[in-house]
Amino acid sequence: MFVLQWLVLQMTGSALQVSLVAFYRLFPVFLFGLPAGILADRVNRRSVLLAAQLWNALASVTLAVLVVTESLALWHLPILVGMLGVTWALDLPSRHSAIHDMAGEDGVVNAIALDLFGMNTAKLLGPILGGLLWPVLGTAGCMFLLTAGYLIKFLNYLRLPSFPPPAHPHRAILRHVGEGISYALRHPVILGVLAITVVLNSLAFPYQSIGPVVARDTLGFGPRLTGLLLSADGLGAMLVGLMIASRRDLVRPGRVFTLGSLAVLVGLLAFSVSRTFAFSWCALFLAGCGLGCFGTLQSPLILLSAPARIRGNIMGALMVAIGFGPLGVLQIGVLAILVGPAKAITITAGLGLLVAATVAWKARGLWNFRGADGQPGR
After folding, report:
1. Nearest Cα to Cα of residue 268 among 329, 343, 349, 163
2. Residues 125, 117 contacting (CB under 8 angstroms)
3. For the segment 296-349, what is each residue's pLDDT rounded down to a tens digit?
4. What b/e string do you get for 206-239 counting C-beta neighbours within 10 Å, with b at 16 or more?
5. Residue range 2-161+173-367, CATH number
6. Which of 4, 34, 248, 355 has the fewest CB atoms within 10 Å, i.e. the most exposed one?
Protein backbone atom coordinates (compact mmCIF):
# COMPACT_ATOMS: atom_id res chain seq x y z
CA MET A 1 0.00 0.00 0.00
CA PHE A 2 2.81 2.44 0.85
CA VAL A 3 4.58 1.83 -2.45
CA LEU A 4 1.40 2.16 -4.50
CA GLN A 5 0.32 5.31 -2.67
CA TRP A 6 3.73 6.89 -3.18
CA LEU A 7 3.66 5.91 -6.86
CA VAL A 8 0.23 7.50 -7.35
CA LEU A 9 1.38 10.61 -5.49
CA GLN A 10 4.34 10.88 -7.90
CA MET A 11 2.09 10.27 -10.91
CA THR A 12 -0.73 12.67 -10.04
CA GLY A 13 0.21 14.86 -7.07
CA SER A 14 -3.43 14.45 -5.95
CA ALA A 15 -4.43 13.69 -2.36
CA LEU A 16 -7.76 12.37 -3.65
CA GLN A 17 -6.08 9.92 -6.05
CA VAL A 18 -3.82 8.71 -3.23
CA SER A 19 -6.83 8.18 -0.95
CA LEU A 20 -8.57 6.22 -3.72
CA VAL A 21 -5.86 3.55 -3.53
CA ALA A 22 -7.06 2.76 0.00
CA PHE A 23 -10.67 2.97 -1.18
CA TYR A 24 -10.04 0.27 -3.78
CA ARG A 25 -8.50 -1.92 -1.04
CA LEU A 26 -11.37 -1.45 1.41
CA PHE A 27 -14.54 -1.32 -0.65
CA PRO A 28 -14.58 -5.07 -1.47
CA VAL A 29 -14.50 -5.74 2.28
CA PHE A 30 -17.82 -3.91 2.61
CA LEU A 31 -19.31 -5.77 -0.35
CA PHE A 32 -18.02 -9.28 0.40
CA GLY A 33 -17.53 -9.25 4.17
CA LEU A 34 -20.85 -10.92 5.03
CA PRO A 35 -20.67 -13.56 2.25
CA ALA A 36 -17.09 -14.31 3.34
CA GLY A 37 -18.29 -14.88 6.89
CA ILE A 38 -20.98 -17.25 5.67
CA LEU A 39 -18.34 -19.05 3.61
CA ALA A 40 -16.23 -19.49 6.75
CA ASP A 41 -19.17 -21.37 8.33
CA ARG A 42 -19.88 -23.58 5.30
CA VAL A 43 -16.52 -24.39 3.63
CA ASN A 44 -13.27 -25.85 4.92
CA ARG A 45 -11.44 -22.78 6.23
CA ARG A 46 -8.03 -24.07 5.20
CA SER A 47 -9.15 -24.18 1.57
CA VAL A 48 -10.35 -20.57 1.76
CA LEU A 49 -7.04 -19.42 3.22
CA LEU A 50 -5.01 -21.23 0.55
CA ALA A 51 -7.10 -19.82 -2.30
CA ALA A 52 -6.82 -16.29 -0.88
CA GLN A 53 -3.01 -16.35 -0.97
CA LEU A 54 -2.89 -17.49 -4.59
CA TRP A 55 -5.35 -14.74 -5.53
CA ASN A 56 -3.16 -12.17 -3.73
CA ALA A 57 -0.06 -13.41 -5.53
CA LEU A 58 -1.82 -13.12 -8.91
CA ALA A 59 -2.88 -9.52 -8.23
CA SER A 60 0.55 -8.38 -7.01
CA VAL A 61 2.54 -10.05 -9.81
CA THR A 62 0.18 -8.49 -12.38
CA LEU A 63 0.84 -5.06 -10.86
CA ALA A 64 4.58 -5.73 -11.04
CA VAL A 65 4.45 -6.76 -14.70
CA LEU A 66 2.39 -3.70 -15.64
CA VAL A 67 4.95 -1.44 -13.98
CA VAL A 68 7.91 -3.22 -15.63
CA THR A 69 6.33 -2.89 -19.06
CA GLU A 70 5.38 0.74 -18.32
CA SER A 71 1.74 -0.14 -18.96
CA LEU A 72 0.29 0.71 -15.55
CA ALA A 73 -2.56 3.22 -15.72
CA LEU A 74 -4.76 4.58 -12.96
CA TRP A 75 -7.73 2.51 -14.20
CA HIS A 76 -5.79 -0.70 -13.45
CA LEU A 77 -5.72 0.08 -9.72
CA PRO A 78 -9.45 -0.37 -8.97
CA ILE A 79 -9.23 -3.87 -10.45
CA LEU A 80 -5.94 -5.11 -9.05
CA VAL A 81 -5.99 -3.39 -5.65
CA GLY A 82 -9.65 -4.39 -5.45
CA MET A 83 -8.55 -8.02 -5.90
CA LEU A 84 -6.36 -7.63 -2.81
CA GLY A 85 -9.39 -6.26 -0.96
CA VAL A 86 -11.52 -9.28 -1.94
CA THR A 87 -8.95 -11.67 -0.49
CA TRP A 88 -8.75 -9.65 2.71
CA ALA A 89 -12.52 -10.05 3.07
CA LEU A 90 -12.17 -13.81 2.51
CA ASP A 91 -9.11 -14.27 4.71
CA LEU A 92 -9.94 -12.68 8.05
CA PRO A 93 -13.21 -14.45 9.01
CA SER A 94 -11.77 -17.86 8.09
CA ARG A 95 -8.38 -17.19 9.67
CA HIS A 96 -9.69 -15.93 13.01
CA SER A 97 -12.35 -18.65 13.18
CA ALA A 98 -9.61 -21.23 12.50
CA ILE A 99 -7.46 -19.68 15.24
CA HIS A 100 -10.37 -20.05 17.66
CA ASP A 101 -10.75 -23.70 16.62
CA MET A 102 -7.08 -24.38 17.34
CA ALA A 103 -6.64 -22.32 20.52
CA GLY A 104 -10.04 -22.71 22.19
CA GLU A 105 -11.74 -20.08 24.37
CA ASP A 106 -8.97 -20.01 26.96
CA GLY A 107 -6.25 -19.29 24.43
CA VAL A 108 -8.02 -17.31 21.70
CA VAL A 109 -7.08 -13.84 23.03
CA ASN A 110 -3.39 -14.75 23.20
CA ALA A 111 -3.47 -16.56 19.85
CA ILE A 112 -5.13 -13.69 17.98
CA ALA A 113 -2.81 -11.26 19.76
CA LEU A 114 0.09 -13.22 18.25
CA ASP A 115 -1.62 -13.11 14.85
CA LEU A 116 -1.98 -9.33 15.16
CA PHE A 117 1.61 -9.11 16.40
CA GLY A 118 2.72 -10.59 13.09
CA MET A 119 0.50 -8.21 11.13
CA ASN A 120 1.69 -5.18 13.10
CA THR A 121 5.30 -6.23 12.69
CA ALA A 122 4.66 -6.13 8.95
CA LYS A 123 2.89 -2.78 9.37
CA LEU A 124 6.00 -1.51 11.14
CA LEU A 125 8.49 -2.88 8.63
CA GLY A 126 6.40 -2.32 5.51
CA PRO A 127 6.62 1.49 5.28
CA ILE A 128 10.29 1.44 6.35
CA LEU A 129 11.20 -1.18 3.75
CA GLY A 130 9.00 0.51 1.18
CA GLY A 131 10.72 3.85 1.78
CA LEU A 132 14.18 2.23 1.59
CA LEU A 133 13.56 -0.18 -1.28
CA TRP A 134 11.38 1.98 -3.52
CA PRO A 135 14.30 4.19 -4.65
CA VAL A 136 16.43 1.05 -5.23
CA LEU A 137 14.06 -1.62 -6.56
CA GLY A 138 11.27 0.59 -7.80
CA THR A 139 7.58 -0.20 -7.57
CA ALA A 140 7.91 -3.38 -9.64
CA GLY A 141 10.69 -4.83 -7.48
CA CYS A 142 8.66 -4.20 -4.34
CA MET A 143 5.60 -5.87 -5.88
CA PHE A 144 7.64 -8.92 -6.96
CA LEU A 145 8.90 -9.13 -3.37
CA LEU A 146 5.31 -8.99 -2.13
CA THR A 147 4.33 -11.78 -4.54
CA ALA A 148 7.07 -13.98 -3.08
CA GLY A 149 5.69 -13.26 0.38
CA TYR A 150 2.21 -14.42 -0.61
CA LEU A 151 3.61 -17.64 -2.06
CA ILE A 152 5.59 -18.31 1.12
CA LYS A 153 2.39 -17.74 3.09
CA PHE A 154 0.61 -20.25 0.82
CA LEU A 155 3.29 -22.87 1.57
CA ASN A 156 2.97 -22.14 5.28
CA TYR A 157 -0.81 -22.62 5.17
CA LEU A 158 -0.33 -26.06 3.60
CA ARG A 159 0.87 -27.17 7.05
CA LEU A 160 -2.41 -26.18 8.73
CA PRO A 161 -4.87 -28.86 9.82
CA SER A 162 -8.19 -29.20 8.06
CA PHE A 163 -11.12 -27.22 9.50
CA PRO A 164 -14.44 -28.85 8.55
CA PRO A 165 -17.34 -26.37 8.48
CA PRO A 166 -19.34 -26.34 11.75
CA ALA A 167 -22.62 -25.50 10.03
CA HIS A 168 -24.72 -28.05 8.16
CA PRO A 169 -23.93 -27.69 4.43
CA HIS A 170 -27.63 -27.65 3.43
CA ARG A 171 -28.67 -25.05 5.96
CA ALA A 172 -30.66 -22.19 4.39
CA ILE A 173 -28.31 -19.27 3.73
CA LEU A 174 -30.88 -16.52 4.36
CA ARG A 175 -31.87 -18.11 7.65
CA HIS A 176 -28.21 -18.36 8.59
CA VAL A 177 -27.64 -14.68 7.79
CA GLY A 178 -30.76 -13.60 9.64
CA GLU A 179 -29.78 -15.56 12.73
CA GLY A 180 -26.35 -13.93 12.80
CA ILE A 181 -27.65 -10.37 12.35
CA SER A 182 -30.36 -10.86 14.96
CA TYR A 183 -27.88 -12.24 17.47
CA ALA A 184 -25.41 -9.39 16.87
CA LEU A 185 -28.07 -6.71 17.35
CA ARG A 186 -29.26 -8.28 20.62
CA HIS A 187 -25.83 -8.92 22.14
CA PRO A 188 -24.40 -5.80 23.85
CA VAL A 189 -20.75 -6.83 23.53
CA ILE A 190 -20.92 -7.70 19.83
CA LEU A 191 -23.01 -4.62 19.04
CA GLY A 192 -20.56 -2.40 20.93
CA VAL A 193 -17.56 -3.85 19.09
CA LEU A 194 -19.27 -3.44 15.72
CA ALA A 195 -20.28 0.17 16.48
CA ILE A 196 -16.78 1.22 17.54
CA THR A 197 -15.33 -0.61 14.54
CA VAL A 198 -17.56 1.42 12.21
CA VAL A 199 -16.49 4.67 13.90
CA LEU A 200 -12.76 3.97 13.71
CA ASN A 201 -12.83 2.61 10.18
CA SER A 202 -14.84 5.53 8.85
CA LEU A 203 -13.31 8.39 10.87
CA ALA A 204 -9.88 7.29 12.12
CA PHE A 205 -8.11 4.81 9.87
CA PRO A 206 -8.70 6.77 6.63
CA TYR A 207 -5.81 9.00 7.77
CA GLN A 208 -3.55 6.27 6.36
CA SER A 209 -4.79 7.05 2.86
CA ILE A 210 -3.39 10.61 2.98
CA GLY A 211 -0.55 10.02 5.44
CA PRO A 212 2.07 10.25 2.66
CA VAL A 213 0.52 13.55 1.49
CA VAL A 214 0.72 15.07 4.98
CA ALA A 215 4.32 13.89 5.31
CA ARG A 216 5.40 15.34 1.95
CA ASP A 217 3.33 18.51 1.63
CA THR A 218 2.82 19.58 5.27
CA LEU A 219 5.97 18.25 6.95
CA GLY A 220 8.24 18.33 3.88
CA PHE A 221 9.56 14.74 4.06
CA GLY A 222 10.81 12.46 1.30
CA PRO A 223 10.03 8.73 0.96
CA ARG A 224 12.58 7.55 3.56
CA LEU A 225 11.47 9.84 6.39
CA THR A 226 7.84 9.30 5.37
CA GLY A 227 8.28 5.54 5.65
CA LEU A 228 9.92 5.91 9.05
CA LEU A 229 7.15 8.21 10.27
CA LEU A 230 4.31 6.01 9.04
CA SER A 231 5.85 2.99 10.76
CA ALA A 232 5.34 4.55 14.21
CA ASP A 233 1.77 3.32 14.64
CA GLY A 234 2.86 -0.15 13.57
CA LEU A 235 5.53 -0.17 16.29
CA GLY A 236 3.04 0.91 18.96
CA ALA A 237 0.49 -1.67 17.84
CA MET A 238 3.15 -4.39 17.71
CA LEU A 239 4.44 -3.73 21.24
CA VAL A 240 0.98 -3.52 22.81
CA GLY A 241 -0.17 -6.61 20.92
CA LEU A 242 2.86 -8.51 22.23
CA MET A 243 2.07 -7.39 25.79
CA ILE A 244 -1.51 -8.63 25.47
CA ALA A 245 -0.34 -11.90 23.89
CA SER A 246 1.94 -12.55 26.87
CA ARG A 247 -0.82 -12.11 29.46
CA ARG A 248 -3.14 -14.86 30.61
CA ASP A 249 -5.08 -12.71 33.09
CA LEU A 250 -6.64 -9.89 31.06
CA VAL A 251 -9.62 -9.35 33.35
CA ARG A 252 -11.61 -6.75 31.42
CA PRO A 253 -10.80 -6.98 27.71
CA GLY A 254 -13.82 -4.86 26.79
CA ARG A 255 -12.47 -1.97 28.83
CA VAL A 256 -9.00 -2.25 27.26
CA PHE A 257 -10.59 -2.38 23.80
CA THR A 258 -12.65 0.75 24.45
CA LEU A 259 -9.84 2.83 25.95
CA GLY A 260 -7.50 1.78 23.16
CA SER A 261 -10.04 2.90 20.56
CA LEU A 262 -10.22 6.35 22.14
CA ALA A 263 -6.40 6.52 22.27
CA VAL A 264 -6.25 6.00 18.49
CA LEU A 265 -8.33 9.13 17.92
CA VAL A 266 -6.43 11.22 20.47
CA GLY A 267 -3.14 10.27 18.81
CA LEU A 268 -4.45 11.22 15.36
CA LEU A 269 -5.67 14.59 16.62
CA ALA A 270 -2.17 15.27 17.96
CA PHE A 271 -0.59 14.15 14.67
CA SER A 272 -2.83 16.44 12.65
CA VAL A 273 -1.60 19.59 14.45
CA SER A 274 2.07 18.60 14.62
CA ARG A 275 4.72 20.27 12.49
CA THR A 276 7.82 18.38 13.67
CA PHE A 277 9.02 14.85 13.00
CA ALA A 278 9.49 13.93 16.69
CA PHE A 279 6.02 15.04 17.82
CA SER A 280 4.36 13.51 14.77
CA TRP A 281 6.14 10.21 15.37
CA CYS A 282 5.11 10.16 19.06
CA ALA A 283 1.50 10.99 18.16
CA LEU A 284 1.33 8.12 15.67
CA PHE A 285 3.03 5.83 18.20
CA LEU A 286 0.23 6.64 20.70
CA ALA A 287 -2.35 5.96 18.01
CA GLY A 288 -0.58 2.66 17.32
CA CYS A 289 -0.70 1.66 20.99
CA GLY A 290 -4.44 2.25 20.92
CA LEU A 291 -4.66 0.32 17.67
CA GLY A 292 -2.89 -2.59 19.37
CA CYS A 293 -5.64 -2.73 22.00
CA PHE A 294 -8.41 -2.27 19.44
CA GLY A 295 -7.13 -4.70 16.82
CA THR A 296 -5.96 -7.41 19.21
CA LEU A 297 -9.22 -7.62 21.16
CA GLN A 298 -11.72 -6.87 18.39
CA SER A 299 -12.06 -10.43 17.07
CA PRO A 300 -11.69 -12.26 20.43
CA LEU A 301 -14.53 -10.24 21.97
CA ILE A 302 -16.79 -11.40 19.13
CA LEU A 303 -15.50 -14.98 19.02
CA LEU A 304 -15.99 -15.37 22.78
CA SER A 305 -19.52 -13.95 22.57
CA ALA A 306 -20.85 -15.81 19.51
CA PRO A 307 -22.02 -19.46 19.41
CA ALA A 308 -20.03 -21.79 17.16
CA ARG A 309 -22.82 -22.26 14.60
CA ILE A 310 -22.77 -18.58 13.55
CA ARG A 311 -19.22 -17.57 14.54
CA GLY A 312 -18.04 -17.10 10.96
CA ASN A 313 -21.28 -15.30 10.09
CA ILE A 314 -20.74 -12.70 12.80
CA MET A 315 -17.08 -12.37 11.82
CA GLY A 316 -18.49 -11.53 8.38
CA ALA A 317 -20.56 -8.78 10.02
CA LEU A 318 -17.31 -7.49 11.51
CA MET A 319 -15.84 -7.36 8.01
CA VAL A 320 -18.84 -5.28 6.90
CA ALA A 321 -18.17 -2.88 9.79
CA ILE A 322 -14.53 -2.69 8.70
CA GLY A 323 -15.80 -2.11 5.17
CA PHE A 324 -17.19 1.30 6.15
CA GLY A 325 -13.63 2.48 5.68
CA PRO A 326 -14.08 3.35 1.97
CA LEU A 327 -16.69 5.97 2.85
CA GLY A 328 -14.20 7.51 5.24
CA VAL A 329 -11.45 7.37 2.64
CA LEU A 330 -13.58 9.26 0.12
CA GLN A 331 -14.63 11.73 2.79
CA ILE A 332 -11.09 12.50 3.93
CA GLY A 333 -9.91 12.70 0.33
CA VAL A 334 -12.50 15.38 -0.46
CA LEU A 335 -11.75 17.22 2.80
CA ALA A 336 -8.04 17.16 1.96
CA ILE A 337 -8.82 19.04 -1.26
CA LEU A 338 -11.10 21.56 0.48
CA VAL A 339 -9.16 22.33 3.69
CA GLY A 340 -5.81 20.56 3.30
CA PRO A 341 -4.72 17.05 4.39
CA ALA A 342 -3.72 17.90 7.98
CA LYS A 343 -6.97 19.76 8.74
CA ALA A 344 -8.92 16.90 7.15
CA ILE A 345 -7.45 14.55 9.76
CA THR A 346 -8.25 17.07 12.51
CA ILE A 347 -11.92 17.19 11.48
CA THR A 348 -12.43 13.44 11.06
CA ALA A 349 -10.48 12.42 14.19
CA GLY A 350 -12.26 15.05 16.30
CA LEU A 351 -15.67 13.88 15.11
CA GLY A 352 -14.62 10.27 15.61
CA LEU A 353 -13.54 10.96 19.20
CA LEU A 354 -16.91 12.54 19.98
CA VAL A 355 -18.89 9.65 18.47
CA ALA A 356 -16.67 6.91 19.93
CA ALA A 357 -16.88 8.43 23.40
CA THR A 358 -20.68 8.44 23.10
CA VAL A 359 -20.73 4.80 21.98
CA ALA A 360 -18.38 3.84 24.84
CA TRP A 361 -20.64 5.58 27.36
CA LYS A 362 -23.72 3.77 26.02
CA ALA A 363 -22.08 0.33 25.61
CA ARG A 364 -21.93 -0.60 29.29
CA GLY A 365 -22.06 -4.32 28.46
CA LEU A 366 -18.83 -4.01 26.49
CA TRP A 367 -17.17 -1.92 29.20
CA ASN A 368 -17.94 -4.55 31.88
CA PHE A 369 -17.28 -7.64 29.76
CA ARG A 370 -15.29 -10.32 31.59
CA GLY A 371 -16.48 -13.81 30.69
CA ALA A 372 -16.67 -15.89 27.53
CA ASP A 373 -20.45 -15.74 27.80
CA GLY A 374 -20.39 -11.97 27.36
CA GLN A 375 -21.51 -11.24 30.92
CA PRO A 376 -19.79 -8.91 33.41
CA GLY A 377 -18.64 -11.92 35.41
CA ARG A 378 -18.78 -15.68 35.54
Report:
1. 349
2. no
3. 888 889 888 888 777 777 877 887 888 788 888 888 888 988 998 899 999 999
4. bbbbbbbbbbbbbbebebebbbbbbbbbbbbbbb
5. 1.20.1250.20
6. 248
